[in-house]
Every structure is written in C-alpha cells, then in structure tokens.
C-alpha cells in the first residue's frame, strides 16, 4: 500500500529522445496525488517519415484526466523543446504557469504572433526566487545555458528535495546572464538531495564545454578580417551569441541588419529585458541594400536549414532584400541538429555556388554547446551528492553513458527509465512502480492528431507509392452504366514494357467487375473491395509497389 507521502516522477517526453520535454512529479498516494508539471515542449517533424507534420508534442491525456490535481506548470527556460507546446496543449490543462521574466516575455511575444492564441496568464518569478505550488516548494536556481534565464529547479517536498537540472552547462564567463550557481547547488547538497534528474545531452563527450566568451572572441576576429558582406546565422534564442555578433560588428564598423521573424522577435524581447543594453541599434532588412559591402552584417535565421527561413531564401537567391555575392562570408554560429544535415548541406551548397565563403565550427570556434560534458556532470554530482540520479534529456546512448558516469562517481542509486514510466523516488527504495499513459501528438496544420492518425499513416504510404482513384457507376441490377474512371497520382506513367498504367488499371477494373457474380456486383461495398484488391495486386505485379487504392461506387 502506497504511503500518503509518496513522491513520484514520470517523464511524458524527453527521455530516450532529445526534445518534447515534459516531466511530472506527484505527491500523495495511489488514490489521491497532487501533480507538478515541468516544461511542455515540442520536437520537430521529419518530412521523410512524417510528411506534412511540423511539430510533435507529448500526449497529455494523463494530465488532462488529473487536471483538478495539477497544481501548476513550471518552465526551466524558453527553448521550443521546453515550452513550444504550451499554446496548443494548455487549453487541455488550464493550470497556472510559472516562469522568470525573459521566458514569460518571449512566450507573450510568441502568442502575439499567433492568429487566435488562448489567453494564458504566466506568473513571473524572479531568478533565484521561490514559490509554493500546492505541496511543492520550487526554487529557481540560475544555470548557464544558450538562452537567458535558464534555471535548475529545486523541488522541495515533505519526502525530500529533487533537483531537476533542466538544460545547463558550467560557463564561468557567460556573455549574458548569471553563471551556474555553484554556491547554491553546494548548499543544496549540504541540505540533502533525494534525487537529481539531469540533462544527458553531452554525456558522451569528454572534458568541458568552452565558454561563450571564447566564441565571441573568434567571431570578432573573423568579422574584422572579412572583406565583403558578412552574414551570421545562429539559433535566434541564443541572445549571448546575438550580443557577441553585435559587438563584433561594432568593432569592425559594420551595421547589424536583422533578417527573419524569429530573430526579430527575440531581439525585441531581449532588448526589453535589458540583455542588449549598450549595444547599437539593429536595423531591419529594408536597410541592407543601403550600406556598402564592408559596412553591413546580416544576422539571419535558418541555421538548421529551415526551408522558409532567411538563409534558405538567400541561398536560393530569392530573398527580397538580402543578397550575397562572390567574396562575401557566411558564418554558421551553430551546430547542425541530427536529422537536419541534408537541409543544411543544401543551403551551404547553394551559397558556395554563389561564390560565398562558408565558416563553420569545423574550422573555427564559432559555436559551443549549452549542455554539460562529462567533467561538468561530475562537478554537478560532487556539488549536489544526490541519493538517486535519473538521466533524462537524451537518447538511449546518452542516458546509458550518464548513468555509467554517475555510478563511477559514487551515486548510491542510479535509475534509467522511459517515457511513461512511473518512478517512485521515496520514501524507501526508488524504482519503477508502474506506467502512466504517454505518447505523441502530431500538429497537422491547425489540428492535433494522435500517432495512430489515419492521415499521417496514409500520407506516408502515399509518399512512397502514390494513390489510385477509381470511380464506377452501376445500375441497381449490377450493370456498368459507363466506362470506369481511373486517376493515378504519384505513379509512373508506363510499365517496363511501355504500356500505360491508366490502360492496365482500366482493363483490370472492367475484367474484375465482369468476372463477379451478379449479387456481388449489386453490393457496392463488396464490388468496391474486389476492385481495390485487384487493382493493388495488378500494380504490385507490374511495378513492385502497392499504392493506396480508393474505389468509389455510385449506384444509379
């Protein structure tokens, strides 16, 4: 029997994957628990496997069912993989949201860009502040990361304290914001930490992540040495990098032109929050053509190869305001997220064709990760000294390596889990004690679909093998009124022998109908299924693929 003060943890996204983060903590017994949600993010669709799907979100049906017991949602920071699903999923939850100033301001700007966003109030908590959310006391502990105001969360309960790290690294010289608060984390360790739920993204990488200050110095040197126009692309949310680019432009006597809506939005919010104080005013893309080649720097969206972003349009030479020529320079101040290599490669090839010089982190220190490498993970463990460590925010290899490192560092208990696992943290021995409903939701246009959605499954099949449409008009006596109509989409025109597939399918439809006994011809469902099977079999024989086949039978 569960004790009334049992503390549980369940990831609904972000474990076994990078992205789509959602964690829930529960306090109580199996009949009545209070829940606290941490982050509510997205991951991005893959056109090859999920055609037409832009965003993937965690399935929140469990929290929807527990809506009355959901005390609140706390945001660690404002990256899309941690807060990008709120606009779509918050109406299902309706809970209070807690975040610091920059995250709240960026969310407000994101809502303003939507057509009809729900009114979602956010309670702003100061960096380093604390708030009581039901039976949970949550403290926002500053950590360095690649966006302002990232925080680890110290979640205090009667059972014990959990440190939920969020995304973090150790950077003693961040350009913007506070460094990771080692003093407070050590104090927390002295007070006693029941569990550390920690970022595993770079658990396979030895050493330490370099500082943003080192990147800034490199960018400054490269911009100063450039002869023609310079464009820099980076993650729009990396305000420290934006600041570094602005300082480099200023040192080289160049004006900064902001190109891309996401970049414009972040720059505006960062300036409102004081993170760009002292930097020169940025110009809109309209001003780009007014400056000499050696007096302008374009700060662009599109570092991940997004087809509608500024850099993709520049690479395709179809941006209305910004062009690059032979001798100009593009700096990719970013790393390519796995899965985006082909899209980024296409943009680089387009720029190279235009004679543009490309600089990436392969040749120069123009990007650093916002996540901890192995020595930093060891530091966090030594400061906090948790009784239990649970690796999250990583694929299977990252989680396994983080777990192995934690055991070697002397953590008494280490537990790996999957999305949907219900983990008892305390009191007593921790362990996986059950499952909660979990899964994925797909954003298809303006509609949310579950992973078994017919549209998603059929679209994938259509992308592979096309679709055959057949329309047949029949009398009540089971005779064809006219020739059947055939429309083949996404298929070759002819077979290997040069025969038209339209003619092949037409003959199959007619011969199938004529070969059916009259009672089956009078049954539209039976006739349609017979034609569908025959057409798919014939196409498979002639082509080696089975397209989707849709048969419409009209009785007149």
From TrEMBL:
At the top level of its lineage, which domain of life is listed? Bacteria
Among InterPro entries, the record links this protein to: Metallo-B-lactamas, RibonucZ/Hydroxyglut_hydro, RMMBL, RNase_J, RNase_J_2, RNase_J_b_CASP, RNase_J_C
List the protein's name. Ribonuclease J
Q: Which UniProt keywords apply?
A: Cytoplasm, Exonuclease, Hydrolase, Metal-binding, Nuclease, RNA-binding, Zinc
Q: Which residues form the Metallo-beta-lactamase domain?
A: 21-219
């Amino acid at each position: 029997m569960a004790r009334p003060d049992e503390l549980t943890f369940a990831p609904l996204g972000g474990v076994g994957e990078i992205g789509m983060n959602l964690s829930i903590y529960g306090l109580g017994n199996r009949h009545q628990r209070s829940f606290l949600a941490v982050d509510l993010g997205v991951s991005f669709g893959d056109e090859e496997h999920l055609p037409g799907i832009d965003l993937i979100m965690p399935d929140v049906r469990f929290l929807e069912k527990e809506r009355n017991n959901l005390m609140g949602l706390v945001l660690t920071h404002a990256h899309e993989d941690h807060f990008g699903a709120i606009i779509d999923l918050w109406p299902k939850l309706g809970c209070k949201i807690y975040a610091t100033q920059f995250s709240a301001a960026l969310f407000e700007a994101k809502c303003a860009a939507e057509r009809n966003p729900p009114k979602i109030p956010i309670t702003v908590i100061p960096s380093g502040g604390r708030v009581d959310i039901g039976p949970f006391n949550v403290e926002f502990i500053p950590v360095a990361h690649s966006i302002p105001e990232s925080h680890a969360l110290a979640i205090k309960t009667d059972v014990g304290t959990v440190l939920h790290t969020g995304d973090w690294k150790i950077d003693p010289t961040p350009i913007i914001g506070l460094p990771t608060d080692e003093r407070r984390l050590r104090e927390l360790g002295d007070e006693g930490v029941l569990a550390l739920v920690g970022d595993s993204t770079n658990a396979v990488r030895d050493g330490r992540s370099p500082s943003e200050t080192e990147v800034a110095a490199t960018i400054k040197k490269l911009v100063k040495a450039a002869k023609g126009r310079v464009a820099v692309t980076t993650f729009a949310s990396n305000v420290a990098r934006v600041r570094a680019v602005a300082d480099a432009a200023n040192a080289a006597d160049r004006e900064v032109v902001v190109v891309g809506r996401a970049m414009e939005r972040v720059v505006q919010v960062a300036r409102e929050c004081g993170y760009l104080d002292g930097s020169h005013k940025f110009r809109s893309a309209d001003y780009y053509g007014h400056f000499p080649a050696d007096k302008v720097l374009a700060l662009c969206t599109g570092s991940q190869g997004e087809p509608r972003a500024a850099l993709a349009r520049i690479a395709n030479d179809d941006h209305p305001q910004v062009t690059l020529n032979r001798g100009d320079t593009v700096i990719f101040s970013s790393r390519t997220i796995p899965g985006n290599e082909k899209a980024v490669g296409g943009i680089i090839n387009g720029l190279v064709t235009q004679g543009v010089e490309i600089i990436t982190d392969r040749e120069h220190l123009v990007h650093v990760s916002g996540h901890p490498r192995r020595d930093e993970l060891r530091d966090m463990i030594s400061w906090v000294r948790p009784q239990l460590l649970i690796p999250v925010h990583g694929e299977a290899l990252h989680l396994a390596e983080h777990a192995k490192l934690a055991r070697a560092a002397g953590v008494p208990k280490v537990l790996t889990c999957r999305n949907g696992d219900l983990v008892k943290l305390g009191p007593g021995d921790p362990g996986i004690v059950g499952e909660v409903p979990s899964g994925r939701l797909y954003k298809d246009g303006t509609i949310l679909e579950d992973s078994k959605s017919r549209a998603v499954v059929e679209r994938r099949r259509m992308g592979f093998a096309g679709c055959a449409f057949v329309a047949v008009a029949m009398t009540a006596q089971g005779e064809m009124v006219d020739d059947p109509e055939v429309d083949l989409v996404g298929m070759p025109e002819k077979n290997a022998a040069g025969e038209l597939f339209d003619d092949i399918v037409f003959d199959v439809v007619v011969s199938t109908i004529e070969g059916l006994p009259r009672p089956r011809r009078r049954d539209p469902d039976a006739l349609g299924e017979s034609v569908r099977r025959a057409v798919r079999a014939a196409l498979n024989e002639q082509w080696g693929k089975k397209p989707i086949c849709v048969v419409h039978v009209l009785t007149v």
